[in-house]
Amino acid sequence: MTETIAVLGANGVYARHLLPRLVSAGHSVRAVARRPDAAGIARACGVPIATANIFDTASMRAAFAGCSIAINLATTLPGPSGRGDFAANDRLRTVGTPNSTEACRDAGVKRIIQQSIGLVCASGDATWSDEDSPFKPTVETVASKAVSAALAMEETIVSSGLDWVILRGGLFYGPGTGFDDGWFARASAGKLRLPGDGSDYVSLVHIADMAAASTAAVTRWPSKSRLNVCDNEPAQWRDVFGFVASCVGQNPPESGGRVDFPSFRLRNARAVAALAWQPFYRTYREGLSR
């Protein structure tokens, strides 16, 4: 069954991978962006662009009119490029998401897919986590401060009175994210450093696999589910960065780098079952091979 889908945050890297997949699946798609000039992939795919600001409910109400599903991908997280800000992203989640949800109700949108983060169930150590695991970091990091905002965002969606699916992504990598490009550049220059001693776990997801899971969610619609979307093999940073360094002919990186994320080792079994989905890049080795 095809749907009429509004994608909020349509100029972001996630949306740039998602829009072509939704169009190819036969859905009628509307890109919703604060800066339509930056929504080049939408234009290239022939997707109409509606200008709206997540903090302006009226503009979003107009943008969502006539749509059956809204997919909220709006973020302003800091990335390797230096753009983005954690505080601004927290406000987007705690203030912007209630605005966008209200706009959905007013516009008659019945279903929401909300992007969230797998960090909300991070164990902080080598323990495996699933969607029911509480956030228990053993060290405070900049990223861990964003978890309370993400949980508040999820609660807004859950209590909205609408039907919903929450997709908790692992750490994005792949084209446009900047993360792996930065890792390879620093490794080539001999400047790549392990976060701490490199023993923490990271659950990665290639951005193309995240987009594929989101497309599957539209089709399968696992109503009122929170799903961890990540690859099949969470790995310690020493293994991930050791692989990167080996790819460019460098020795394994030294320890002592900045720790940005608490250790999180996520199971993806629920997403695999609910979405009839498997990551194409099942481990970091496939995804990082160049």
In short:
This protein is of the alpha/beta class and 290 residues long. The chain has helices at residues 13-24, 40-44, 57-64, 86-107, 147-158, 179-188, 207-220, 237-247, 269-275, 284-288, and strands at residues 4-8, 28-33, 49-51, 69-72, 111-117, 128-129, 163-169, 171-173, 193-195, 201-202, 204-206, 225-229, 235-236, 254-257, 265-266.
General description of the model:
The chain has helices at residues 13-24, 40-44, 57-64, 86-107, 147-158, 179-188, 207-220, 237-247, 269-275, 284-288, and strands spanning 4-8, 28-33, 49-51, 69-72, 111-117, 128-129, 163-169, 171-173, 193-195, 201-202, 204-206, 225-229, 235-236, 254-257, 265-266. The protein is of the alpha/beta class. Strand 2, helix 2 (40-44) and strand 3 (49-51) form a beta-alpha-beta unit. Helix 3 packs across helix 4.
List keywords for this structure.
10 helices, alpha/beta, 290 residues, seven-stranded parallel β-sheet, 15 strands, globular
What is the end-to-end distance? 37 Å
Shape descriptor reads globular
Q: What is the N-to-C order of secondary-structure elements (H for helix, E for strand)? A: EHEHEHEHEEHEEHEEEHEEHEEHH
Q: How many beta strands in the DSSP annotation?
A: 15
Using only CA atoms, what is the Rg?
18 Å
Average pLDDT score? 94
Q: What about the largest sheet? A: 7 strands, parallel
Number of helices: 10
Structural class: alpha/beta
Strand content: 15-25%
Low-confidence stretches: none
Strand arrangement in the largest pleated sheet: 3-2-1-4-5-7-12
Fraction of helical residues: 25-40%
